[in-house]
Design goal:
single chain; about 60 residues; mainly alpha; 2 helices; elongated
Length: about 60
C-alpha cells in the first residue's frame, strides 16, 4: 500500500473515531460522508475544462 493510501486511511479512521467520540450516530456520519462526496464531485466537475460552445450565427442561411 502506498504512503498516500495509508495516510488517507489513517485520516478517515481518525475522523470517524472523532465523530463517534463526539456522539455522532452512524447515520449522521453517513450523511457527513455523503456531503463530502457531493462536495468533491462538484469540485471535480468545476475543475473539468468545458468544451467550447459553438455559437450560432445571427445570420440566417437560405
Amino acid at each position: 500500500m502506498s504512503t498516500d493510501k495509508k495516510g488517507t486511511k489513517i485520516l478517515a479512521r481518525t475522523f470517524f473515531t472523532q465523530l463517534r467520540a463526539g456522539s455522532y450516530t452512524p447515520n449522521q456520519i453517513l450523511d457527513i460522508a455523503t456531503e463530502l462526496i457531493d462536495l468533491v464531485t462538484n469540485d471535480l466537475k468545476d475543475a473539468t475544462p468545458k468544451a467550447p460552445v459553438e455559437e450560432k450565427s445571427a445570420e440566417v442561411r437560405h
